[in-house]
Design brief:
Keywords: Membrane, Transmembrane, Transmembrane helix. Pfam families: DUF6358 (PF19885). It is a single chain. The protein is mostly helical. The protein has one domain. It contains two helices and no strands. Helix 1 runs antiparallel to helix 2.
Length: 62
């Protein structure tokens, strides 16, 4: 369970940093960087969704 907690924390930090990066890229009109940031945010949200689903399955089995 410690591994899941650490993974969740890293995903949260990554999401926050990428959202700040996307906002900064939008404000400075660097659209390629914005596109890359949005794609990375989508991947991180998907990974967080899978992690939450996996943790729910683990807790339901107990």
């Amino acid at each position: 369970m410690k591994r899941h907690f650490l993974y969740n924390t890293l995903l949260n930090i990554g999401l926050i940093l990428m959202i700040f990066s996307a906002v900064a890229a939008y404000n400075s009109k660097q659209y390629p960087v914005l596109a890359i940031s949005v794609v990375i945010v989508c991947v991180l949200v998907y990974l967080k969704y899978r992690l939450l689903k996996q943790v729910r399955q683990m807790t339901n089995k107990r």
